[in-house]
Amino acid sequence: MKKKRHITRAKKAKISEILTDSSHASTHLWRSARTADKAQEKIREELSELRSRFKGMIARGPVPFIVVDSEGYVREVNESASQLLDTPSSKLVDLSFGYLVHPADAGLWQEHLKRCSERGTDPVITELRFRLRDQRVLHIQLISNFFHREGVDLFQTALINQTTIKRRAQDLQDSRDFAESIVQTMRHPLAVLSEHLRIVSVNKAFVKLFGVTPLQATGQHLERLIRFGAETERFQEGLRNVLLTGEPVEDVRFEIKLRAGQMRTLLINAHPFLRRHGKEGLVLVAIEDITERKVAEDALRREQTMLARAEALAHVGSWEWDIHKDILVWSDELYRIFGVERGKFDTTYKSYLELIHPDDRHRVDLIIRKALHHTTPIDFQHRVIRADGERVLRCQGYFLLDSRGQPAVLLGTAQDITELRATEEKLRGTNRDLEERTRLLESSHGEMQAFSYSIAHDLRAPLRAIQGMSRILIEDYFEALDKDGQDYFGRIMDAAQRMDDLIRDLLDYARMTTVQLPIGPVDCEAIWNRVMANFAGDIKDKNAAIKKEHPLPPVQAHRTVVELALNNLIGNALKFFPKGGRPEIRVWTERLQSGCIRFHVEDKGIGIAPEHQQRIFRVFERLHPADAYPGTGIGLAIVKKGIERLGGSVGITSKPGDGSIFWFELPAA
Ligand code: ADP
After folding, report:
1. Quick one: which H or E segment has residue 246?
2. Using 50, 70 and 90 to split pLDDT, how confident is the model at 5?
3. Which CB contacts under 8 angstroms, 24+ apart, belong to 161-167?
4. What's the predicted TM-score (pTM) here?
5. Any bridge partners for residue 257, and if so which?
6. Which of 375, 460, 446 shows the shortest CA–CA distance to 409?
7. Can you give the pLDDT at residue 22?
8. End-to-end CA separation in angstroms for the chain
9. Is residue 54 predicted with pLDDT exceeding 80?
């Protein structure tokens, strides 16, 4: 039998307590539930209000918004979006949004939609181009968020117009490209330096001049690539100053050494400029290699100095007259010549005329006007009155024509010829004096010649008388004289003979200088025969050997001269041989290219030292006393004078002890 359970009083009391508590609790719970309902209601109301405010904000807010469905159709559109897309909302709603997308970006739009449909929590962002009704293209960034409404997938999409930013970025890029292309195409080396004065970029000209690649140059200090030498500090100082004060370095010259060791002259300009939103200070360094220019400038300066010096030395000034503008340009020397100061002279043609001596002015003006009319060169003289006196100038010039052939410029020189004129005048005087003296001299010379000729001639008569009478004395009274008397007589006869020789030679010489020597063909063979006949006794006495190599050709000359020449040369060859020896003579001729015949008389005699070879052709020049080798010392002088008067020449080759070759030349007949 099942044991009956007993509920104790204590248990009952407990139960009743619990029941009372629970009834309280349920009352409390019910009350709480009611409060919660009310709160929930309130929240719902607030939420709905918030939602409608939010919707209103989107609808009227500044940010363009659209709502598209998963097919890409527009479900909602706010005012801003309609404005942005330049299409009324009524036309946008239910439109496939892809219709507005630029065809080139259609794929991107599909991709965007696909990513939206994946319902991620992150917004989907894509940048697309849109083409509006007026063909404008907008760059719009789409930011889409997925949401679900009434069982439909929708994408709330903000449209951020990037067009302006894009355009600005493009403009910026364009101007950068433009700047870069300018930098690169500049013929002068350029370098952009950072605020730490390190190279950021260089152009092609820089690479070429300094022989570094852009890569090698980038990050370097300029003075590592360009050897400024002692000027490094000055260069760095200038660059630092550009950064600190913004003051540019302008046209500063530096002498530098290239890596190859070549010296160059650079003209450097450095300008500050800002980049990257004005945050970074940069320096643009433009380098101009002016070495060649400097060399040319130096050369020009040197030439100008030389020209100025030459002008000063020669007292020549140069000038140029621009005819159309009537402007005169004068060199420094010309100002000195005219005695006017640069700056105080009005450089016009009229002012120039005023500087001319009043008596010459009109004439000069006429000459220039005439030359201008005919465009002929000018060359005239005029005077100027300077503070230190009157000067004479010689002006020479010529015209330069313009494209129409009209005179445009007259240019030339003016020389101060005052001293020259004085010297010329003096010279003319001296010349006149000289001419007069020469005339006097010639006449007295002629008189002297005539006088000496007549003396020589007249001396011969008494001499002949002496010789004749002496001969009679010898014939009739010689035996009557004692030995001494005979000796004295012999000497008188010798002296008379010598005197006769002397007079004969002098007369020959005088004849060579004064008488006319008509020229014609001369038969030299006939002359030779006469000469041989003349010396036949001598040849026999001295046992001389004379060899004529070939017949002597005829010449165009004067017979007496040729005969005298051969007589003298053969006579000397027979005379000047060593004592105890025997004369050996060789004669030959040679036809020269000049058309002359050269006659050679060679002997194996005593010869003549080089220092005497010229003087023996002068009158009375003898190298030996008369008792060693008799003679008058006139023979060779006669030969020279006669041959030269016929247009020929004479000469000698000889060596003491080795004999001599005397020669003379005359035109062939
Ligand atoms: P001369 O024979 O009357 O002395 P020349 O005028 O003929 O005068 O010669 C001048 C001088 O030249 C001679 O005195 C002699 O010293 C030298 N002379 C001329 N011909 C010869 C020769 N063939 N050999 C050496 N000396 C010569």
Report:
1. none
2. low
3. 161/64, 161/84, 162/127, 163/137, 163/138, 163/139, 165/139, 166/139
4. 0.42
5. 227, 263
6. 375
7. 67
8. 201
9. no
Q: What is the residue with the minimal CA distance to atom 21 of ligand 1?
A: 572
Asked if residue 544 lies in contact with residue 581, where contact means CB atoms within 8 angstroms, the answer is no
Q: Average per-residue pLDDT in the chain? A: 88
Structural contact between residues 530 and 566, judged by C-beta atoms closer than 8 angstroms: no
Q: Which residue, 212, 222, 311, is CA-closest to 270?
A: 222
In this structure, which residue's CA is closest to atom 12 in ligand 1? 616
Give the residue-averaged pLDDT of 244-273: 85
Instruction: Report the nearest-CA residue for atom 13 of ligand 1.
Output: 622
User: What 3-state class would DSSP assign to 662?
Assistant: strand
Mutate to test the pocket of ligand 1, among 572, 574, 621, 643 (most ligand atoms within 8 A of CB): 572
Q: Is the pLDDT of residue 31 over 90?
A: no
pLDDT, tens digit (0-9, with 9 covering 90-100), for 590-649: 999 999 999 999 999 999 999 999 999 998 899 988 888 989 899 999 999 999 999 999
Q: How high is the pLDDT of residue 100?
A: 92
Alpha carbon separation from 161 to 58, 73, 224 (Å, rounded): 16, 20, 49
Ligand 1 centroid – CA 652 distance (Å): 12
Question: Which atom, in ligand 1's list, is nearest to the CA of 577?
Answer: 24
For CA atoms 41, 42, 46, 52, the dihedral sign is: positive
Q: By the 8 A CB rule, do 401 and 436 touch?
A: no
Residues 6 or more apart from 355 whose CB is under 8 A from it? 338, 340, 345, 384
Beta strands 596-603 and 659-667 are: antiparallel
Q: What is the pLDDT of residues 184-214, one digit of tens each?
A: 888 889 998 888 889 988 999 999 888 889 9
* Nearest residue to 83 (alpha-carbon basis) of 109, 62, 101: 62
Please write down the long-range contacts of 85-90, taking CB distance under 8 Å and 24 or more positions apart: 85/130, 85/132, 85/159, 86/132, 86/133, 86/134, 86/136, 87/132, 87/133
258 membership: H or E segment, kind and range: none
Substitution site in 535, 636, 653 for ligand 1 pocket (most atoms within 8 Å of beta carbon): 636
In this structure, the residue with its CA closest to atom 2 of ligand 1 is: 631
Looking up tokens 């929708």 gives 154
Backbone angles phi, psi at 538, to 5 degrees: -60, -45
Q: Do 213 and 201 contact (CB within 8 A), yes or no?
A: no
Q: How many CB atoms lie within 10 A of CB 333?
A: 24
| Distant-in-sequence, close-in-space partners of 111: CB < 8 Å, separation ≥ 6 | 126
Burial of 542: CB neighbours in 10 Å, binned 0-12, 13-18, 19+: middle
Nearest protein CA to atom 19 of ligand 1, as residue:
572
Identify which of 249, 238, 248, 240 has the alpha carbon closest to the alpha carbon of residue 196. 240
